[in-house]
Amino acid sequence: MVGFLLLIKWFTEWVLKTLNERKIVKARSWAPDEINRFFTQEKWLECSNYNLSKSKFSKVEDFLALMIGLFSLFIFLPWFLVNYPLSSHLSSWEVAFAISIFMFVLTVPNFLLDWFYQFRVEQKYGFNKQTFRFWCFDKIKESFVSFIFMFLVFAVLSYVFRNLILFSPQFWWVIASCVILAVQLVLMIIWPIVIMPLFNSFTPLKDESLLKKIQKLSEKTGFKTHRIEVIDGSKRSGHSNAFFTGFGNFRRIILFDTLLEQMNENEIESVVAHEIGHYRLGHIPKRIAASFLMGLIAFYFIDLFYRNNLIVEQFELPQSLSGSIECVLLFFILFGGVVTYWFQPLGNMISRKNEYEADEYASSVVGGSTHLRSALKHLCEENLSYPLPHPLLSWFHHSHPSVLEREVKLLGSDS
């Protein structure tokens, strides 16, 4: 059943991306009238080719993910659970270490894919700024951080379960969901302070005029920020962005240095106002609440699988694993995506609604949508974002509306 769902997921992705590629090819020879104000004919051709390259590469990624999924399901996972049984006689730390090694092995093929994407796709279109040496150091650091994170999460979950199952055998999964929520909140604080500086440098915004403009905007909107900083994203990529991290006294506004190079003060102010809009409209707490609800549902099904011993029976595993929650957790992490995949359109629909709302909020606090529309135009052009994706692909995958959709909405809010 799981193998069939993996195949269906892969086939659906192939169909969606093929439809989008055909749409790009059809419009590639000449820019449609509605986007002439965004791209020159030369830039439009570059944008089309870039997005075609990304789509074709993504198909290769999807096929490799399918092969790894099938290999894990029928060969690697059963072998691992038979030879390294995650039974209760092992400590939580030992179990977490074994699972982390297992998960790390599955990510090894992704190193080659990431290298190809950075140095063949991104570099061809001028986005990659990394040297091979720098990329290697990044991969080492990423692998180390990911391994430590996986190890700690599995160890905590294993320890929590082994204690909660004795304290509250019927509702341990509710408490476990709360523990995961607490971990998420802690990560929101420590990630920008501890983890992100391992990869990027953060410096205070030195442009006094822009700094005063953003500070004035923060005061006007009631968005009290601890710091306004610039991240050196240009050392890796030519893409640009802005975001804020943390909450309370740990809140920071982060601007990419590439963003400062590509936009004027008014445009940057409108982009920051958009990000503040997410905060002021309560989108962040709503996302956290939705994440908690999804985690609660996931743990409920993990409890069902655990109580009915489904995985042990399905794979004909040793009966010593029948009391192992870690075995069930590993299965859900590997294959839970075949179920959650089909709920992506719902999540993206809510996300796109939030983007429209944040755009409208930004427009209201900066005195109209002119500068925000100009900023969106720059982001689209500089990042070679394709403004006319196939509707089905956009509905299924895109968490943000296209620049054309956002422009129409903003013009409507101005009138």
Tell me what the structure shows.
- A hairpin with a 6-residue loop joins strand 3 (about 240-245) and strand 4.
- It is globular, with a radius of gyration of 23 Å.
- The protein has helices spanning about 1-30, 40-85, 90-120, 130-165, 170-195, 210-220, 255-260, 265-280, 285-310, 310-315, 325-335, 335-340, 345-365, 370-385, 390-395, 405-415; strands at about 200-205, 225-230, 240-245, 250-255.
- The chain has a 4-stranded mixed beta sheet with strand order 1-2-4-3.
- The chain is mainly alpha-helical.
- The model has no long low-confidence stretch (mean pLDDT about 85).
- It is built from 16 helices and 4 strands.
Structure summary:
By secondary structure, this protein is mainly α. It has 16 helices and four strands. Helix 4 runs antiparallel to helix 5, helix 6 packs parallel to helix 8 and helix 8 crosses helix 14.
Strand order of the largest sheet: 1-2-4-3
Instruction: Encode the helix/strand succession as letters.
Output: HHHHHEHEEEHHHHHHHHHH
**What level of helicity do the residues show?**
over 70%
Q: Span between N and C termini? A: 53 Å
Structural class, by secondary structure, is mainly alpha
Range of strand content: under 5%
Please tell me how large the radius of gyration is: 23 Å
Query: Overall mean pLDDT score?
Result: 85
Largest beta-sheet characterization: 4 strands, mixed
Low-confidence stretches: none
The coarse overall form would be: globular
- Our count of helices gives 16
What is the number of strand segments? 4
